Amino acid sequence: MEKKDRLEKLIGKTVMVPQFLTTDPANHRGDIGTVTAVHSYKDGYADISVSFKDGCGRYDAFALLILFPKKIILQSLINKFDSIDKETRKDMLQVVKLICQKRPERALSLAMENKDLESSCVTNCQDWIEIKKKQALKTARRLSGNKKS
Prior knowledge:
The chain is of the alpha+beta class and 149 residues long. The protein folds into 2 domains: 3-65 and 123-134, SH3 type barrels; 70-120, no CATH class. Helices cover 48% and strands 21% of the residues. It is built from 6 helices and 6 strands, in the order αβββββααααβα. The protein has a 4-stranded antiparallel sheet. The chain has a two-stranded antiparallel sheet with strand order 5-6. Helix 3 (86-100) packs antiparallel against helix 4 and helix 3 (86-100) crosses helix 5 (115-121). The longest helix has 24 residues, at 125-148.
């Protein structure tokens, strides 16, 4: 998958501006919005345009929060199962269920309700881009391996 394709996968995704973002020229701290455009730079970083109910803003990809892919949330649940409380496990499954039901705004809001949930379900957009890059490389290797069989 090319870099442009990975970046374009962000368009339409639900993101949140962190409540405690130091600098927010668009004044949308704590708001949830939808990615409308992704602007890439030669150094590999991205700048993201986001549409909110009452306007829009442009943010550095590190400044926006997004849900991890479902597989990563579920793997995190398995890995941390014994170290997290029953309520957090239940909430993690609820986040995945909401993602499957195409309710990302509610899933992201729920994921931000406590630190354990946030650390297992949420990342920044720049890291999300890198995750998608690694997933694409794994898929490409697997497919090229299957062709040899």
